[in-house]
Design brief:
CATH topology of the largest domain: Transferase(Phosphotransferase), domain 1
Number of strands: 11
Structural class: alpha+beta
Low-confidence stretches: 157-172
Radius of gyration: 19 Å
CATH superfamily of the largest domain: Transferase(Phosphotransferase) domain 1
Shape: globular
Strand content: 15-25%
CATH class of the largest domain: Mainly Alpha
Strand order of the largest sheet: 1-2-3-4-6-5
Mean pLDDT: 86
Length: about 280
């Protein structure tokens, strides 16, 4: 698809915005309601994988079920013989990945505030049986105090057996923030999203992902074999409370990680009480 084309007889593409896990995203004008929107397009003619259209439809279904201030709102979806499309609200601001690139490590206070809103979005996501599976800085938009989680393109609807479309050995997600279980080709769970958010906290506070590497295979291997990253080892001025939380979120054993709800509570405590341990939320065990 090109700028100027009309999608679904309604959405005029006006500018490219970037690429997501499953397609290209455009700014567009809804010619029926006369408003600006974002439209994600997947070219169905460019793949022989019959599951692509199903996964794309699953993104629409998964995201549309979520009504949360930190999750992008879905307006419409559709497909024809060439493309499938997903229409969503056009969000202001920048991706956290761009903020990290331009500013280096963010302050602890700003990092914690962003992560707290993502954690709350994950609480809502996990409550309806959806695992995002691709939490990373590029999928988090910030504009002032507003934070939005994007791109449910590889989300897994855990309560629907028919939604398990990927083969057991298929690894979906971004290597830099991939949980050990995903790196080993095992099924992602809500704990996998918690691990990835811990990795995002590492990137925001230190300016680098948890395990840099030359290629995705090497990075995935480091997620499996190397101990969790201490943010204080990279940036000593960070609080011990944040360091402890990140270490717990990035535990190699998924069962040892706190739930998204506990993480949200701990981060809320850190927002309100910077640098103080949230031991009443995350008991020392």
């Amino acid at each position: 698809m090109r700028v100027g084309e009309l999608v679904g007889g309604r959405y005029r593409l006006t500018a490219p915005l970037g690429r997501g896990a499953m397609g290209q995203v455009f700014r567009a004008t809804d010619e029926r309601l006369r408003r600006e929107v974002a439209v994600k397009i997947v070219d169905l003619t460019a793949t022989t994988d019959a599951s692509v259209a199903q996964r794309f439809h699953r993104e629409a279904v998964a995201t549309a079920q979520l009504n949360h201030p930190s999750i992008v709102t879905i307006f419409d979806t559709g497909s024809d013989e060439r493309v499938a499309w997903l229409v969503m609200e056009l969000l202001p601001g920048r991706a956290v990945s761009d903020v990290i690139r331009d500013e280096g490590g963010l302050s602890e206070a700003r990092s914690v505030a962003i992560a707290q809103k993502v954690a709350e979005a994950l609480v809502a996501t996990h409550a309806i049986g959806v695992v995002h599976r691709d939490i990373k800085p590029a999928n988090i938009m910030v504009a002032g105090d507003d934070v939005n989680l994007l791109d449910f393109g590889i989300a897994q609807v855990t309560l629907d057996a028919e939604a398990h479309l990927t083969a057991p050995a298929t690894t979906l997600g971004t290597a830099a923030y991939m949980s050990p279980e995903q790196a080993q080709g095992r099924q992602a769970t809500p704990a996998s999203d918690v691990y990835a958010l811990g990795g995002v906290l590492v990137a925001m506070t230190t300016g680098q992902p948890p395990y840099p590497g030359d290629n995705a295979f090497q990075i995935a291997g480091r997620h499996i074999t190397e101990p969790p990253v201490s943010v204080r080892s990279r940036r000593p001025q960070l609080s011990a409370a944040l360091d402890d939380l990140v270490l717990r979120m990035m535990a190699k054993d998924a069962a040892a990680r706190p739930s998204a709800a506990l993480v949200a509570q701990a981060l809320t405590h850190l927002v309100c009480n910077p640098g103080t341990a949230a031991t009443t939320v995350l008991p020392l065990v």
